[in-house]
Amino acid sequence: MDGELTRQTAADLAAAMAAGEVSAVEVTQAHLDRITAVDGSVKAFLHVAAERALAAARAVDEQRAAGAPLGPLAGVPVAHKDVFTTADMPTTCGSRILAGWQPPYDATVTRRLREAGMIILGKTNMDEFAMGSSTENSAFGPSHNPWDLDRVPGGSSGGSSAAVAAFEAPLGTGTDTGGSIRQPGAVCGIVGVKPTYGGSSRYGLVAFASSLDTPGPLARTVLDAALLHEAMSGHDPCDSTSLDAAVPPVVAAARQADVSGLRVGVVTELGGEGYQPGVMQRFTETVELLESLGAKIVELSCPHFAYALPAYYLIAPSEASSNLARFDAMRYGLRVGDDGVRSAEEVMSLTRAAGFGAEVKRRIMLGTYALSSGYYDAYYGKAQQVRTLVIRDFEAAFEQADVLVSPSTPTTAFRIGERADDPMAMYLADLATIPSDLAGNAALSVPCGLAPEDGLPVGFQIMAPVLADDRMYRVGAAVEAALQRRWGHALIDEARGLDGAGR
Amino acid sequence: MPITREEVAHLARLARLALTEEELDRFAGQLDVIISSVARVGEVAADGIPPTSQAVPVTNVFRDDVLVPCLGAAAALDQAPAAEAGQFRVPRILAED
Question: What dotted CATH number matches B5-43?
Answer without folding.
Answer: 1.10.20
